[in-house]
Specification:
The chain is mainly alpha-helical. The protein has ten helices and no strands. It has helices at 3-19, 43-58, 63-70, 77-83, 87-90, 93-100, 103-115, 117-127, 131-142, 153-163. Helix 1 crosses helix 3. The longest helix is centred in the N-terminal third of the chain and has 17 residues, at 3-19. The N and C termini lie close together (12 Å).
Length: 166
Amino acid sequence: MDRRHFIAAAATLSITACVGNAPTAQPVSSEGLPADLRPVANADFANWVARFKPRASNAGISSTTFDAAFAQAGYLPGVVMRDGSQIQTRRTLEEYLSIATSDERLSKGRTALTRYGSTLDAIEARYGVDAHIVAAIWGMESQFGEKRGLIPVVSSTATLAFDGRR
């Protein structure tokens, strides 16, 4: 799976995870976010979202769920900028790996694999992505749910998928 398809799959997973069984639009407040992390009008992004909808449908995402997830979504220019300056692009591989594979993070990863093993196995069975890979991404991106951030997930993921740089 190439990175672009991965981002699209992640967007689909994010939509499913965020909305669940009873889809309702959740207001997303951009209050307190820097201006570049607030949605801006972008006709090309809107067209990308429209073209992505059938793909999400083919992956089992209902139109209602998709519409609810994207109701407040928008293009976030700051996400693209920040993506290009992530820590792994500013450090040597050795420096990055020493941070990414700290004893604390590895311990939390083992705990997460034990605690959420059945969920991770179900994700692996459904999407074909190894449970350990999902857990590693989860750990790197959110410290296993401890660090959630304020930037809207659907907008962020969709912005990165639209950007297509990866």
